[in-house]
């Protein structure tokens, strides 16, 4: 197997508590042709010292530390690292998440065997306090078979599991810094539109650290940002209009119902937008949710924030 260089992109913000565990999961990779670029985005704690100590223990590796003088957001941090990257492939790991030791090796192997441009896999979300598993997020067999239509309905391509050709960013540009949470979802749909190939690598490749007390609040924010992305790509011709309408109504009706009590104005705006764009599917979805409130549980394994808010 040819062993191309992989650039590992790691944004960091107030990361001193967990970043060493993330770094050690990089060191443990069975695939050894990698470089690492850590971009600290405007915070100032012990992150720099931890990264430089780690780098001194691996002098044979190219490990860079970059510091943004002001907080610019996680997309800006990732974009900075991508612009400095030398690898043929990019891999993404947030400073509080963890890779399985086989992640890079199996991803590169599958990319080479399939000829795909982007590989992704399953992720385990765990409770930061108890270390117990909350959920495993991965695409179903039906979703894999129905790609890319299924991706428009649900973002199951998760940032810490992605290994992707750097040349894609050279062709399509970088992450949209105006999108705060779902910038990864936006970029995957841009890749779909450009006609690049995805491949799913079976198995759990990453562990996502989650503060369980903020799960519901975070999830509503995730849905709201996904609404922005879905609207941005509402004319994506490769996806059938029926599928686009279904996704638009599902996202916006859910956001409307979640905000109904605490933010009725936002709730109304969401309903008005979706009924204007997809009135029939939106009406069906609203009736379904009102008749069967328990159906909201199907959203629990929907997705997760691509990173901790900065």
TrEMBL record:
InterPro entries in UniProt: Glyco_trans_2-like, Nucleotide-diphossugar_trans
Pfam family, one: Glycos_transf_2
Class of the enzyme per the UniProt entry, highest EC level: transferase
Gene3D superfamilies: Spore Coat Polysaccharide Biosynthesis Protein SpsA, Chain A (3.90.550.10)
Listed EC numbers: 2.4.-.-
Residue stretches making up the Glycosyltransferase 2-like domain: 7-139
SUPFAM superfamilies listed in its UniProt record: Nucleotide-diphospho-sugar transferases
Keywords, in A-Z order: Glycosyltransferase, Transferase
Origin superkingdom: Bacteria
Gene Ontology molecular function: hexosyltransferase activity
Protein name according to UniProt: Glycosyltransferase
Provenance organism: Limnofasciculus baicalensis BBK-W-15
Record lineage: Bacteria, Bacillati, Cyanobacteriota, Cyanophyceae, Coleofasciculales
